[in-house]
Specification:
Largest sheet: 4 strands, antiparallel
Radius of gyration: 34 Å
Strand order of the largest sheet: 3-27-26-25
CATH class of the largest domain: Mainly Beta
CATH topology of the largest domain: Neuraminidase
Distance between the termini: 39 Å
Strand content: 15-25%
């Protein structure tokens, strides 16, 4: 590479350093979205960086560690230029129109000290979180002082309370909501007169079971040295047109990294998406940029749409009012259009502005066709303009046919128009069982009215066939056969298992057949259970061997562990008798599978209790039969049977642990042998 080529590679970095406004039209990162399963899937980039503003381009001089950003309805951009102790105001074209660094306070000039928050009220007044001076300053639009709100005074605040406001917003009634540095009690509230009225929206204390255990067993001195169980603090706020407060938390163990708080401080944010609004669903544990998303800021768009900024990887995640993820963009990096230390975001019409305090600049993003159609589709869907919404969603699917939220949007429009069957198909593609259930309930009602006569005739015919079959079987044989023995055992367990052991009426081949039938029925259940009760399974991805092994392996693991334990505890059961008793006990589970599959295809989410009841009855019946079978086969007392069954479960765990340990050691030995072989071959090759 010649010297000229090296200079060309350094050119973008030099532009960033001097802060020139640079148009950027190519995404410096790949787009992605998360599926229902939580897998990241490729997606078109929804927003592109088109302009960077900073450095010498600003006639007010470059920013220095700016912390906060606010965009007014008339598209004026206010920046809390923290390192320069000033407020910088830009117009829509990003030209500086005003700089506020001093103001008259009585008879003397006053200024800011490391201001970290800015909010502009609808009346034009500016509220600045003057962090270094531990106060809030209210100014007119021209920069004249209105008032100074100092530290709150209240009995609820301890002597150690330190007042350092960092972010703030106000409502239409003149109340202020202030986030303080190191304040764990929630968001501070001030009335229109500037008086402190209390806290709102405190985060829940999060701790693990291990932490609670050690706190119980430790001495008083040891507990005093533990990390205190305190709520996590908020780091940013915004307010919507309805007066709801959006607050963010960057802590890893926060119960919710973004909240929507009503006036009483209750979180009312909707989280009906596939994954709650928290940033990345999948992430690396080690290496660079690892761990959960650290939410730094929240920005509000139209019709309940909001975006959150992840400081861990520099991503921006946008959600609709129901908490469904719309798209993702942004990245930390050194390329033009990426961030170093993003500190705040805000909307400028349909554009996004990102404040990067690491590079001391603003980055302007504009929506691509993909981002624009999704945003428009969500807005049209929210305003009830179905035709326009469906048109936009179909356009989005042309750009990304894996966009599950698009199928959901089309399904909602179809449901409103009464096209229930079409809505069902789209809700299934969109992996949303609740909405699918609503459409299915309406479709089922219409279907039953149209085919009531056929349905009633079919029910009567099935009932007659069952009664006839029962009468015929009763007349045909007096002594139950192999299958009849299984049927007899599940209704007369004590007699049935006694005859299975002592009269040799049980058959091993029939027990193995029952195991095979159960395995095949579970494969059918995975494939044919209704979408409402089986939304996570793709029928094409069901593997027969994978399904069978989850039935067969636990079955024989139980039989081996039980035989091992009862041999040491004077049990009279042979291994084949344990196999037969366990298999015969499975008959109720086998009998329940077909009714469960059929039921799952004709009931809704609200009627799911019937499905779960039937499934629970099958398993309770199985456990009861298994208990009687083990009691009879081993000739134990009730207490001893319970004890051996518990010990059998423990032995199963030990066998699994030893098996995993063996395979791990075997893998290491094979790896070591392969390394020795390669080294030997390498040495022989050199010789």
């Amino acid at each position: 590479m010649n010297r000229f080529s090296k200079y060309l590679l350094l050119f973008p970095l030099l532009l960033i350093m001097v802060g020139i406004s640079v148009p950027v039209h190519a995404a410096p990162y790949d787009g992605y979205n998360y599926s229902w399963w939580g897998d990241p899937e490729p997606a078109p980039v929804p927003y592109l960086p088109v302009k960077q503003i900073g450095g010498e381009q600003l006639n007010s001089g470059p920013f220095k560690s700016p912390e906060d950003l606010y965009v007014t309805p008339d598209n004026h951009i206010y920046v809390a230029d923290t390192g320069n102790n000033r407020i910088v105001v830009l117009n829509e074209q990003a030209s500086v129109i005003q700089t506020i660094d001093t103001f008259e306070n009585g008879d003397k000039a006053d200024g800011f000290s490391a201001p970290q928050g800015i909010f502009v009220h609808s009346n034009g007044h500016l509220f600045i979180a003057d962090t270094g001076n531990k106060r809030i300053v209210e100014l007119t639009k021209e920069g004249g002082l209105v008032r100074v709100i100092g530290a709150p005074e209240s009995e609820v605040l301890g002597d150690s309370f330190v007042y350092e406001p960092i972010k703030l917003v106000g409502d239409s009634a003149g109340r202020l909501y202030v986030v303080g540095k190191g304040v764990f009690n929630g968001i501070m509230q001030f009335d229109s007169g500037g008086e402190f009225t209390g806290f709102m929206g405190v985060n829940k204390v999060r701790y693990s079971a291990a932490d609670l255990f050690w706190k119980r067993v430790m001495t008083k001195e040891q507990r005093s040295k533990m990390v205190l169980f305190i709520p996590v603090e908020f780091n940013n706020v915004d307010i919507d047109n309805e007066g709801f407060i959006y607050a963010t938390t960057s802590e890893e163990f926060s119960d919710a990294p973004v909240k929507r708080l009503n006036p009483s401080g209750t979180d009312v944010l909707k989280r009906t998406g596939y994954h709650p609004p928290k940033g990345d669903v999948r992430f690396r544990i080690g290496g660079t940029r690892s761990g959960t998303s650290a939410i730094q800021s929240v920005s509000l768009d139209r019709n309940g749409i909001y975006s959150i900024l992840d400081n861990t990887r520099g991503r921006i995640f946008t959600y609709d009012r129901e908490g469904k993820l719309m798209y993702i963009y942004g990245l930390l990096g050194e390329q033009v259009g990426t961030f170093k230390t993003p500190s705040d975001i805000d909307m400028l019409d349909d554009k996004m502005i990102v404040l990067d305090k690491g590079l001391n600049q603003l980055v302007l993003f504009e929506p691509t066709r993909y981002g624009k159609v999704i945003r428009d589709a969500v807005i049209f869907n929210d305003t009830g303009e179905e035709e326009k919404s469906v048109e936009k969603w179909r356009e989005a699917l042309l750009l990304n046919n894996n966009l599950e939220i698009a199928y959901l949007g089309i399904g909602k429009a179809e449901l409103r128009q009464g096209n229930n069957y079409e809505a069902m198909k789209h809700f299934e593609l969109g992996m949303h069982r609740e909405y699918y259930s609503r459409a299915f309930e309406r479709y089922r009602k219409d279907f039953m009215w149209e085919h009531f006569g056929k349905i009633a005739a079919s029910v009567i015919a099935v009932a007659v066939l069952l009664i006839t079959a029962k009468v015929w079987m009763k007349r045909r044989e007096t002594e139950p056969g192999v299958a009849g023995m299984g049927w007899y055992t599940i209704f007369h367990p004590f007699n049935g298992f006694w005859e299975l052991k002592f009269e040799k009426k049980g058959k091993v081949w029939f027990a193995l057949l029952l195991l095979l039938v159960l395995s095949l029925l579970y494969v059918m259940k995975r494939q044919f259970t209704g979408f409402i009760f089986n939304p996570s399974v793709n029928a094409e991805s069901v593997n027969l061997l994978d399904e069978i092994k989850f039935i067969v392996l636990p079955f024989f693991l139980w039989c081996i562990a039980n035989w091992s334990m009862t041999t040491l505890m004077d049990g009279e059961g042979k291994f084949k008798e344990i196999v037969m008793a366990t298999a015969y006990a499975l008959i109720p589970v086998i009998l329940m599978q077909i009714p469960l599959i059929l039921l799952s295809n004709v009931i809704t989410v609200q009627e799911g209790s019937f499905y779960r009841l039937l499934e629970s009855l099958g398993f309770l019946w199985f456990f009861g039969l298994l208990f009687v079978g083990m009691l009879t086969v081993h000739q134990y007392t009730v207490g001893k049977t319970v004890m051996t069954m518990i010990l059998t479960m423990i032995v199963m765990g030990i066998i699994i642990f030893l098996g995993l340990l063996f395979f791990s050691l075997a893998q290491q030995m094979l790896s070591f042998a392969a390394t020795i072989y390669k080294e030997a071959m390498f040495r022989l090759g050199e010789g």
